Amino acid sequence: MMKRDECLKTLARHRTDEIVVAVYKAAQDWIHISPGDLNYTFTGAMGQGSSHALGLALGRPDKRVVVLDGDGSLLMNLGSLVTIAHAAPKNFVHCVCENGTYETNGAVPIPRAGEISFTGFAKAAGYRKTYEFKDLQEWDRELPRILKEDGPVLVALKMEPGEDYPEDFRRLYDIRYRDAFRQALAKR
Known about the structure:
- This protein is α/β, with parallel strands linked by helices.
- It has a single domain (2-127, 134-183), classed as 3-Layer(aba) Sandwich (Rossmann fold), CATH 3.40.50.970.
- It contains nine helices and nine strands.
- The chain has helices at 4-14, 24-33, 49-59, 71-75, 79-87, 118-125, 136-146, 169-173, 175-186; strands spanning 2-3, 19-23, 39-42, 65-70, 92-98, 101-102, 108-109, 129-133, 153-160.
- The protein is globular, with a radius of gyration of 15 Å.
- The protein starts with a strand and ends with a helix.
- 40% of the residues are buried.
């Protein structure tokens, strides 16, 4: 099992100019681990990370979009998997931070934690490729190739909490960061 912060640091090391959509705990960690104008972060819309990322991927097919979704969050919008597979954006990498809990809501276990397969859901929905990682070195080794593959791709990342980064809701919603994202997104 990987620590979330180490898993996200690995992504940050391999990141070039990808748009990263991060929700809930991943968003709180990501703003500290990989600050940048192409970060689209939010909380408060459980299940909507994949849908927001799909819109960005369709709107900017020239840029790779990586969504850092939670397993509990994705369970709230499983139908998005079928919509994403149908739209078939080649620039879409869907990472599910799988820890078996609704972590933001007090680490309440998700239904059938450890018994369901997010890669299985994605395959059944029609994603082109799926991966599952429990080992940080394997994730680090395979990530560069995954970031170049035609999507949609779903990556289940088996993880547990790592370093506890401070929550900064003001940063997540500050209009200056939203404006910087809009400007970075508009650049061709």
